[in-house]
Input
Amino acid sequence: MPVLNSLATRLSLLFALVSVLLLGSIGAYLYHSLHREIAWRDDQMLRGRLERMEALLDDGESVAALRERPQLYANMLGNRDSLLWILDPRGKVLIEVNPGNLAVPTLPASREVRLDDVAGAVPARLAWQTLEQDGRPLTLVAGKLLDERRQMLSAYRLRLWLALATGALLAFLLGWGVSRRGLGPLRRLAEQANRIDVRHLDRRLNDAGETEEIGALSLGLNRMLDRLEEGFFQLARYSADMAHEMRTPLTNLLGQTQHTLRRERSAEEYRQVLESNIEEYERLSRMIDSMLLLARTENPSKEIPREAVDLGLLVEQLCEYFEGMAEEDGRELIHHASGSVVASCELLRRALANLLANALRHGRSGTPIRITTATTAERVELRVQNQGDVIAPDDLSRVFERFYRCDPARTGSVDSGGLGLAIVRSIAQWHGGEVGVESDAERGTTFTLSLPRVSRDAAAPPPPARGSA
Amino acid sequence: MRILVVEDEQKTADYLCKGLSESGYRVEVARDGYDAQHLIEEGEFDLIILDVMLPGLDGWQLLRLIRRRSQVPVLFLTARDAVEYRVKGLELGADDYLVKPFSFVELLARVRTLLRRGPPRETEHFRVADLEMDVLRRRVTRQGERIALTNKEFALLELFLDREGEVLSRTYIASRVWQMNFDSDTNVVEVAVRRLRAKVDDPYPHKLIHTERGMGYVLEDRA
Output
């Protein structure tokens, strides 16, 4: 129901519901108290009447005398809903005052005063007692028709229902007014939020003069907007960079192929074009691969299996892999890694391979590359250090951004496409770790990959660390 | 050897058909799930290459169908490199998978591996022209002269000899020799092959290791 989607309507309905419950309980209590009170008074009156009759009989007035003047007695009772019977032991009516024309009741004999309701077309309340009168038992019965009482109670009930309905309606209306008024700041917040769109991401919610709750909400929303704005611009820049990066290989492919097709060429020439095309395709394919990997590691819900990774072994494998390349450049890979970490082996290998490739690409020929680990109780730090040109402080903070290159002129098919370090950071963050970089002329450039030793959701602790390899 | 290619994308199907035919296989192509079902039920194949995204019956349904009938090797192709895809395919009984885009050389290497499945060939001795390798004693000689190789150089040469005449892609070499299962953008493999050549080929007039530009490397006697 769309009406129920309004917070004000819901609140006022709740107000009304609460009022109905409250007023209803009070009404029910009052009604039952009244009912009990009236019944008690009636019973007292019937007992009194029986006592008076007993006194009358004891007073020497014979039953026969009473029988002769029943009207007198009826007048004595003085109203139209009182009943009276005096019955002899055989159930024969000696005296009867019966304005409701009830059937003569058959009642069990009782020395004590007894009370009971008589159901039927004309309901009544009866009190009776059996007495010895001149050596024979007589049953005195006093009664009261319940019609009047019922009419009175039903009128009272009606008034209660009316009060209840009026109360609920008033509560609803008042609640609606109060809620509308109380929710005013929320409406103003919505109006402000409506003014923020893709072209006005810099607008913020103004919470001056609003209540504490709304202030907290605005603050939270503003912080969210900060993050979204940042993410949005990163995404926009990423898309633009990506398109730009793809343009280079595509330009090569298009131009080269069209140029070749302009005239007949030898089989060897065609072959060369096709081979050159493959290189560009591979470059595009690697870019797509890298971007998919980034998408995968940036989506934490996608579970990638983790295991205990022996860092000594992993770095050794990587050193073997890059050994040839390093030696060609007169460089040595110095490996002092040890310890273990719970991580995705595949991703960690990739992150380290990217760091090593980066060190080989940017380090100075003939200088060594050092891979070391430092283990604390919570974290494992992997450091890759190389000698080379110092990275400027401005660049230092941005090297992990996608497609960021310290030297914009450096693009080539051997280049990592500007995603290598972004992948390292993404993998570190996926593990709940972080990356860092320092660069100075004395110690060279050091990239740090810092990972929690035991991942937050890993069940098994890592096995004991292996000694340095 | 008969291969069934189940692939709905026209160009992919065409080049797979051409390429595999040129490599000496008899190839049948199914363009959708129902065609494939028909062909699987009618014919006998030695290998099935299955695209997962198909009109009609999808690749997973076909895979179940195939596994109910036979143990023919199945190589599935997927454009989605999600772990659950790979796991699902392998659980349903596929033997191997390739993520698009893949290189044809890579596909051919997988096809050959699957077709000669069975107990792995443990060759102890290789001989191509005047190059000899004794695997157990880790000895390599050429024209009878002993050549000293590092461990990884030995592993690389053993891979080339085992796959004599087959073009091996750089990715495949990296994964087999160094367990690097991703397409590295460095020239590690080039360097490694160059260093191996310096020892095995350069001192001798008759070259055995050849570069197939854009595809990879092959070791064969092209006398």
User: Anything to note?
Assistant: Confidence is low (pLDDT under 50) at residues 457-469 of chain A. Chain A has three domains: 2-167, 212-296, 304-452. Chain A touches chain B at residues 274-279, 281-282, 285-286, 288-289, 292, 296, 302-305, 317, 320-325, 328, 346, 349-350, 353, 357, 360-361, 414-417, 420 (CB under 8 Å).
